[in-house]
Design a protein that fits this description.
Helix 3 (108-126) runs antiparallel to helix 5 (136-151) and helix 6 crosses helix 7. This protein has ten helices and eight strands. It starts with a helix and ends in a 13-residue tail after the last helix. A three-stranded antiparallel beta sheet has the order 3-2-5. Strands 6-7-8 form a three-stranded antiparallel beta sheet. The protein has a two-stranded antiparallel ribbon with strand order 1-4. The chain is elongated and about 185 Å long. The protein has 319 residues and is α+β, with helices and mostly antiparallel strands.
Length: 319
């Protein structure tokens, strides 16, 4: 009798242990348990820790309550200003109602992914290229609102949406690079022109001061010479300003106005006697002979001018 009682107690204990092992469940801190009994949802969501269910009758589904990071595949679209771009993003969301996440939607992760891709394409078509590149905060907020509205019905809350990258065609990249380069060159020219204007104003003020005190220009010239000489150059280029000449001209006394300029000395021309006497020329004209006779005075004059002796004229030829 006692043995049968002990055997019954042992069997009951074993059955209880098997039942406890089949009914015991552990829910982690970042999870929540949803129980279905014969396919019907039990109203109470199991909290983290140890919990019990009815074996064979109940089914416990654990739902992760952590924030999920889901990358959105790159979507290609045409912006409002007719530019083809590829945009990818990332979505951060979490489950706020485990029961709705299991009952209202088949797979809430897949649903959020598809909704994010559709919303991203819609944002691309409604935005300009400049908004996609520089005004991303506003687009992120718009994407978050577009995703959060249907996701709340699925027991999911969108925590944050970020546009990660915007890919442009190579031609558009080159055009934007040329535009940026032209803009930088324009700003550089404006800055240089402004600097030249300021420098010209300062130089005009300095010129006005130097015009009142001409000695200041000479002092400035000496300072320039000292600055150049400090470089240990073998050649020194010394500028000589015109103002310094004017200063020196004003410092010298005026010349006498009555003084006439000296005429250049000219040596009086010496009259050269004729080489042929008139009588000889007349005689030769009558005879038809060539006039070879020269006067002695003409030979003396030629010798004085040239410094060489003159041979005597040949005698007239006799036929």
């Amino acid at each position: 009798m006692i043995e049968e009682l002990l055997m019954a107690v042992a069997g009951a204990g074993a059955a209880a242990a098997v039942y406890a092992g089949a009914a015991a469940r552990v829910v982690k801190q970042y999870e929540r348990g949803v129980v279905f009994r014969f396919g019907r949802l039990r109203g109470q969501v199991r909290s983290p820790g140890f919990t019990m269910i009815v074996p064979v009758v109940d089914r416990l589904h654990k739902v992760n309550m952590q924030i999920v990071t889901m990358p959105v595949p790159a979507q290609e679209g045409i912006t409002r200003d007719n530019v083809t771009v590829r945009v990818d993003a990332v979505v951060y969301f979490k489950v706020v109602d485990p029961a709705d996440a299991l009952v209202r939607v088949e797979d809430y992760r897949f649903a959020v992914s598809q909704m994010a891709q559709t919303s991203l394409r819609s944002i691309i078509g409604k935005s300009d290229l400049d908004d996609l590149l520089s005004n991303r905060e506003k687009l992120n907020q718009g994407l978050e609102l577009m995703l959060d509205s249907p996701a709340l019905g699925w027991g999911v809350a969108i925590d944050r949406v970020e546009i990660k990258d915007v890919s442009l065609p190579e031609t558009m990249k080159r055009s934007m690079a040329r535009q940026a380069e032209a803009d930088r060159e324009r700003r550089a020219r404006v800055i240089n022109a402004d600097a030249e204007l300021q420098a010209s104003k300062k130089l005009s003020e300095a010129a006005a001061v130097m015009s009142d005190q001409p000695a200041a220009l000479q002092l400035r010239l000496l300072q320039t010479v000292v600055a150049v000489a400090a470089e240990k150059n073998s050649t020194l280029v010394l500028p000589f300003p015109v103002e310094l000449l004017r200063f020196l001209e004003r410092a010298t006394p005026d010349a006498k106005p009555d003084a006439a300029p000296h005429a250049p000395h000219r040596t009086p021309e010496r009259e050269i006697p004729p080489l042929i006497d008139d009588a000889d020329a007349d005689a030769d004209a009558d005879t038809g002979a060539y006039p070879w006779s020269r006067t002695a005075a003409a030979e003396d004059a030629i010798e004085d001018l040239t410094g060489t002796s003159v041979e005597p004229a040949p005698a007239p030829r006799e036929d």
